[in-house]
Structure formats: C-alpha cells, structure tokens
Design a protein that fits this description.
By secondary structure, the protein is α+β, with helices and mostly antiparallel strands. The protein contains eight helices and eleven strands. Helix 3 runs parallel beside helix 7 and helix 5 runs antiparallel to helix 7.
C-alpha cells in the first residue's frame, strides 16, 4: 500500500505517517504507531472514537492494522497537510503559503462545527483532548478536518463532568482544570479552551507564548491582545490591510477570549461559539480577563504529554 514506506509525510511522538494508495487508486495516509506501551490505549482510543464519526470536518478512518505489535491506522489523504504549516509567521517553510484571514476564519468555523459534532452530534459524546494546529488537517480546498484521536475520551452525552486520572493534552493548549481539578471539573469545555488557544495562534500568526521578544507584555499573546481590546486600540496585527480583516480578527479574538475563560462554566459551548463566529461583531461582549497571569518565560514544550497527578 505504501510502496515500502517510500513517501514519508511526517513524524510525531506516536510514529511516522506515510502516503499510500489503495487498489482502487484512492490515496491514503498510513500512520504507523511505535510499539505501544501498556495495552495500546492510544490505538484503541483512536479506533473506538473515530469509527463512530461521520462528519465533513472529521478525518475519515479507512481501516487499521492490528497484528501482534504492528499497529497502523489508515486515513483519507489530505493534500495540504496540517494547519500548523500555514499559520506561523517567520516559518521559512511557509513563507509563500501563509493563509489570508478569510481562509483562516472559514477554517476556524469548520473546526468549530467538527467539535460541536463530537460534543453533541454523536450517540456518545467524544472529548478530543488534543486540539491544536498540528492535529487539524486541510484538504485541497483548505477545508479543515480534526484528526488524531489518540487521547480522546468517549462518555455518555448526558454526563457533563467526567472522571479522569492524570493530565492529557499538549502544553500550551491544555485547559486549567485538566491540570488541576481546583479550577473545576473536566468536561467538553476543556476542548473549548484548547480551541480558543488555537484560534489565537491562527489570528496572531505566532505561538501564544513568544520567548523571543524583549517586552514582557508581548510574551503572552492573549494577555497582550486583551489589553488592546480593553483600550479599544487597533489590534496591530500584521498582514490585515482592510476593515473587513480587522473586524473578522476582532470577532475571532473575542470568541477566543470567551473560550479560554479560567472557569469552565464561563466558557461557551461549541454551539454558542458557532453562533458568535457567524453573528455580528457588534453583538459580542468583551469577556472578563480570562487568565490569572502571564505564564513564566520558559520555553514551551509543544509535544503531547500525559502527566499523572
């Protein structure tokens, strides 16, 4: 299928991804997992959760291989790869490929629709727990699809708060309550937080925590942009040259600020997020300041982590 793994698409902590071709000529992405620790929970999670889904903004699982220690997942092939490649300014590899704000807005809406489906549209609620630009794949038209369900958790739809041992997710996107239950219960609102942090990076064209700047007020992007909104200043974002761009950016930022409220009960559901994104800017209120303080100036590990508490 992969022609002896000749065409490698990417590499992650889980293993490598290779381009393949089915007998009917359909291209696929084959994710070959490293030898699993324990009982292979991530592999089972991914198959169990994604096989329950069918949505235009969720990547399609075509099949899987489970033979002894050999485990692989076969997905539809998405030619534009991950969103991560297209949003960070100063990334040499995407110098000619940075997406316009209108496209980023459509991507944000598509991801929100996919998450709303996972939270409300399935027979069982699926919490993703690893929403970040790397796990959003783009088709030939830059329509987004949520991928990588290795950390997902399936729970009954009527159950709002779930029990969970340890922390799962990626540093920089993990909701406070997933780190410490003192902030509240873990629920679908934890995905909402990760979504908000991701949309901030889409609008800002940078990681939320920038350790390379000299001015401490600019290190933590949500903090910096909130102060500008509060003072009704221009957002000062590079690359937005017209009034429509500025309004779209302002809308995405206000929605993101609601999504990253420290108290999960103050965050909107993904249904409400869609309403806000597709509604009028004038109807949006600026939320309370959603963070306790700027994080310390330490490099951020962008890898997926599972930490026992």
């Amino acid at each position: 299928m992969t022609n002896s793994f000749k065409d490698k698409l990417g590499q992650g902590g889980y293993g490598g991804v290779y381009k393949g071709k089915l007998q009917d000529g359909c291209f696929v992405a084959v994710k070959v997992l490293k030898e699993s620790k324990g009982n292979g929970e991530e592999f089972l999670n991914e198959v169990a959760s994604i096989s329950r889904t069918s949505h235009v903004n969720i990547v399609t699982l075509k099949g899987f291989c489970f033979e002894g220690s050999k485990r692989a997942l076969i997905y539809e092939f998405l030619p534009n790869g991950s969103l991560e490649k297209f949003i960070y300014k100063g990334n040499i590899s995407n110098a000619n490929h940075q997406l316009g704000l209108e496209t980023l807005y459509k991507i944000a809406v598509g991801i929100a629709r996919g998450l709303e489906y996972l939270h409300r549209g399935c027979n069982t609620r699926i919490l993703h727990f690893d929403i970040k630009p790397h796990n959003i794949l783009l088709d030939e038209n830059f329509s987004p699809k949520i991928s990588d369900f290795g950390l997902a958790k399936i729970c009954p739809r009527e159950k709002s708060i779930i029990s969970m041992v340890g922390t799962r997710g990626t540093i920089g996107y993990i909701a406070p309550e997933v780190f410490s239950r003192n902030f509240g219960g873990v629920s679908h609102k934890s995905d909402v937080y990760s979504y908000g942090m991701m949309v901030f990076e889409m609008v800002g064209g940078r990681k939320n925590i920038n350790v390379s700047v000299d001015c401490t007020s600019e290190i933590y992007f949500p903090h910096w942009i909130y102060n500008r909104l509060e003072l009704d200043e221009e957002l000062g974002l590079h690359g937005f040259i017209n009034k429509d761009d500025e309004e779209t950016a302002r809308k995405m930022i206000i929605v993101s600020l609601w999504c990253i409220q420290t108290d999960p009960s103050n965050r909107p559901s993904m249904s409400k997020v869609l309403d806000m994104l597709e509604g009028n800017l004038e109807s949006l209120e600026i939320p309370p300041k959603p963070f306790l303080s700027s994080p310390p100036r330490t490099p951020v590990d962008s890898s997926t982590t599972i930490v026992s508490l």
